[in-house]
Design brief:
This protein has 177 residues and is α+β, with helices and mostly antiparallel strands. The protein is 50% helix and 17% strand. The strands form two sheets. The chain has a three-stranded mixed β-sheet with strand order 1-2-3. A three-stranded antiparallel β-sheet has the order 4-6-5. Helix 4 packs across helix 5.
Length: 177
């Protein structure tokens, strides 16, 4: 399937079902108690692990979300193995991504304010593709431009003011996960 092709709701639900089954198996092996909630957000299947026990769930998030990221990559591979197609599935644990998105939004808005005040480009610290995408979206909403630079894992975003030739240019420059 080409990247531009939209998946049907049935395909997205199938991916979420496969992911939920896979994650339930992992939780059983690791002896973690957790409920799995599935859905579709922004044309992407989403699976959230929710638990009653705050101590156990923190281990599934990890430092700076490293465990969530790993769970997402493993789950995407499991879905791809079953469907034969790459998935843009999102895995979240106990609302971690929502909190992370808000934090990234605040960072992006601070950068936008700095650029508006100084007129000079502003470089952010290196981020993963998810983080860069959130920043690019916020910057675009605020009417400025952003561009990613560098190589993984040191890829970062620069926020800057549009120049006159870019004001009519609608080409976006942001990362896709």
């Amino acid at each position: 399937m080409a990247q531009d092709d939209e998946k049907s709701i049935d395909q997205l639900n199938e991916e979420a079902d496969i992911a939920a089954d896979y994650l339930e198996g992992l939780l059983d092996i690791a002896d973690y108690e957790g409920d799995i909630e599935m859905g579709i957000r922004n044309n992407r299947p989403t699976v959230q692990i929710v638990a009653d026990d705050d101590t156990d769930i923190k281990h599934l998030i990890g430092r700076n979300g490293e465990v969530v990221d790993a769970l997402q990559q493993l789950t995407r591979l499991a879905v791809q193995q079953k469907t034969g197609e790459r998935s843009h599935l999102i895995v979240d644990v106990d609302g971690f991504l929502k909190r992370k998105r808000q934090h990234l939004r605040d960072i992006a808005l601070d950068a936008v304010d700095a650029v508006k005040e100084s007129g000079e480009p502003f470089d952010l610290k290196p981020m993963n593709s998810f983080e860069r995408k959130v920043v690019h979206d916020v910057v675009r909403e605020e009417g400025l431009k952003s561009r990613s630079h560098g190589e993984e894992p040191h890829r970062y975003v620069t926020v800057y003011v549009k120049n006159k030739s870019e004001e009519s240019d609608e080409v976006e420059d942001f990362d896709e996960e």
